[in-house]
């Protein structure tokens, strides 16, 4: 089954997703030589905010993703600047957070 925003049943649970993100960040540290560490694509911050952890992924240009982990669950926020014209149509924050628990 293919992952779709219309059917989230194939997403991993929060714990499994967190472990996967930590693994990607760890591999990036291992694979990237120190002199090139500024181009790291995956990073994980276990103390990002009080009670929250965060995973960051980027391709080095305008495509990026943040996954925030909190005791209440997780939120995935991604931006692909080539697929959306932000200057013509800014999204409404209420539309972006519809159905999301207020704690997140």
Description of the structure:
With 104 residues, the protein is of the alpha+beta class. It has one domain. Strands 1-2-3-4 form a 4-stranded antiparallel sheet. Strand 3 and strand 4 form a beta hairpin. The longest helix is centred in the first third of the chain and has 18 residues.
Tell me the radius of gyration: 15 Å
* CA(first)-CA(last) distance: 28 Å
- Determine the number of helices (DSSP H or I, runs of at least 4 residues): 2
Side-by-side strand order of the widest sheet: 1-2-3-4
Oligomer: single chain
Number of strands: 4
Helix content: 10-25%
What is the H/E order?
HEEEEH
Shape: globular
Helix- and strand-based class? alpha+beta
Number of domains: 1
Portion in beta strands:
25-35%
Mean pLDDT across the residues is 82
Low-confidence stretches: none
Task: Report the biggest beta sheet as strand number plus sense, adding barrel if it closes.
Answer: 4 strands, antiparallel
What are the key terms here?
single chain, 104 residues, alpha+beta, 4-stranded antiparallel beta sheet, 2 helices
Task: Describe how the helices and strands are arranged.
Layout: H1 14-31, E1 42-49, E2 52-58, E3 63-70, E4 73-80, H2 93-96
Antiparallel strand pairs: 1-2, 2-3, 3-4
């Amino acid at each position: 089954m293919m992952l779709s925003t219309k059917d989230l049943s194939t997403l991993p649970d929060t714990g499994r997703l967190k472990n996967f993100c930590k693994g990607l960040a760890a591999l990036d540290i291992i694979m990237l030589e120190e002199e090139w560490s500024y181009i790291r694509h995956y990073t994980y911050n276990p103390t990002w905010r009080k009670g929250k952890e965060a995973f960051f992924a980027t391709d080095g240009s305008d495509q990026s993703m943040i996954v925030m982990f909190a005791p209440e669950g997780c939120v995935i926020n991604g931006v692909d600047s080539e697929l959306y014209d932000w200057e013509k149509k800014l999204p409404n924050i209420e539309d972006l957070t519809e159905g999301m628990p207020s704690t997140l």
